[in-house]
Here is the input.
Amino acid sequence: MPVSVPSPDIAVVGGGIVGLWTAYRAARQGLSVLLFEKRRIGAGASGGVMGALMPHQPTGWNEKKQFQLDALVSLEEEIREVEAFSELPAGYRRCGRVMPIRNLEKRRQSAQWVEASRTNWPFPYSWSIVDAMPNPAYLPQGEMPFGANSDNLSARVDPRRLAAALTGALGRLGVEFRQGTGIAAIGRDGTLALESGEKISAGHAVLCAGWESFSLLSGHFVSQIGQGVKGQAALLRPAAPIDPASPILFDSGTYVIVHETGDVAVGSTSENEFGDPHGTDAALEDVIAAARRLCPLLENAQVLERWAGIRPRAAGREPLVGPLPGFANVSIATGGFKIGFGIAHLMAEAVITLAGGERPGFLPGRFLPENRLRA
Here is the structure.
């Protein structure tokens, strides 16, 4: 019979971006942490190439948009701390974002976003409309017939470098990693049954396994908890260097993100139905072609990598963060979907605070599982 290992204060299930930030937040508070990852750190959607950190439009303000805003504003300092602690770069830059306006009605709507940003965003962040680009070779005038939306809040990070920096920081903090270790089941008493047959009883378990979190909880709740959505993206190397300070381009679902290395990420698809979770196909080739049209500097760029992964989207679209109803000492933090990288550190702070018995004032009530799930 397998022998159970000593009980850590916090057991984190999942070595993606939310799991890493959760382990980091707990370890920084002096808690003992054991992190389980079924494959390897960053093997899922967190190991992609994109890394766009972009806010929603500033109209229709609500708790979720405020949470995302707080996260995007605070993330820079959080990453600098991790970089200093790990001595590894994360490839972060607040580069801004530009989005072409292709019709007059969108131009009118954009003016509303400009006004709303003055009310809802703190100085010095703002939304504006530009009629020309400083570098028209990056985004030609013909691609922005009615100007372009621009904001200086958006940023980007290298997903793999951030995961490596967090992993390095966790190592220095004494966090124990169990890579290649899957969780077979989670008991209502908080016991983790490993695929190896071991059982772990932690002070508190936090489920951060991305879209696989939903299947681990299958059968425990009346309705569907969430689903995985496939995204395909590519990493390109331009024939001539592009300034890494260039803003993110976003147009009709197509992203162009210039990383600190000079390589350019383009994406992404959004597929609710898929066969091969990790395979790429013609849909990605369409995205690459659209990115080349949007940004002519990519015309002769070499495709270094084609990538696909599954992002977690919780039912109701808002993330799930907090204790699971019907369970003892088990919480969940997942479902960030497209904004996951931008809010993961704040999700982590919230879930560890809740595990300690306190309610963080910045967490929207709609994120709490007790308000969404019925056992």
Summary: Confidence is low (pLDDT under 50) at residues 1-5.
